[in-house]
Structures are given as structure tokens and as C-alpha cells.
Amino acid sequence: MKAPDLRPLCVITAELAAPMEKGSAPGGMARIIPIIGGKVEGERLSGKVLNLGADWQTVFDDGYAELDTRYAIETHDGALIDIRNFGFRHGPSDVLSRLAAGEDVDPSLYYMRTQPRLQTGDPRYAWLNRTVFVGTGERHASAVRIGLFEVL
Q: pTM here?
């Protein structure tokens, strides 16, 4: 059986507000990180990230983070698209500490992968509703960059 190929869709830069710490959760700490804007850049999908959504994140005691986001984008031509993105971020403890301190860290030093699901009622983008995507990410002090790839 042949492994699927990937085709780049876009890069999403989601701007973040300061995390809101919820406190202890089973196995770790829970927090909400508001998504307050950003941009979407790609040949087939481009536009802006709306000030609407958040990452409901759990950072487990052994250091890895479970990412659970929901937000919306508006395309350059006016379509609204809902994105639900689930994934994980982990790496060596010194690298994760640098990320937590707001440092820009080479993304090759940690693992950040997601399973995005895109949904819209706009017929021009209906193909998004029935396509599988994977994402690879980078955490920065006040933003996250996620490269989305279509699974062919």
C-alpha cells in the first residue's frame, strides 16, 4: 500500500493573547489561550484569522502539551471557515522551558503536529469539508504558525 502524499495548503499565523491559567487538571495544568487575529497565506486558501477562538490546552506533568483549538478565518473573498485543530507539542525539557519563557526556538528541536478539520457552508470552498489535513507548527512568544497540508 502506498503512503499518501501531502500538498501544501496554507500557513496560518494565529496571534495570541496572554494565557489564562485554569489550574490543575487530571495529569497536568489547564489553560485557555485566546486567538485574537492573524493571517492565512496560501495559493488555494488565504485571508485573515478572526478575533474569535482559543486553544484549550493541557500541559501534562511530564511536559507535553495537548492542543485543542477552535477558531475561524475569513478568506480573501469573504468565505467564513471554521477550524478545529487537535494536536501535541513535546520535546526536551530545556527546549520546552525556553518556549514557555517566550523565546523563539528552532522548531526542529521540538515536535508540534496537528490534525486540523476545516468546515464551511460556502460552496466555493466545499472541498475543505471532505478533505483530510495535517499540520506542523511553531510556537512563538505571541503567535503560533501552523503549516496545513492536504493529504492526497
A: 0.93
Distance between CA atoms of residues 31 and 132, nearest Å = 28
Q: Mind listing the pLDDT tens digit for each residue in 61-70? A: 888 899 999 9
Please give the Cα distance from 109 to 79 (Å, whole number): 36
3-class SS of residue 130: helix
Burial 109-147 (b: 16+ CB within 10 A, else e): ebebebebbbebeeeebeebeeeebbbbbbbbeebbbbb
- pLDDT tens, residue by residue, 78-129: 999 999 999 999 999 999 889 888 888 999 999 999 999 999 999 999 999 9
Please provide residue 99's backbone torsions phi and psi, each rounded to the nearest 5 degrees: -60, -45
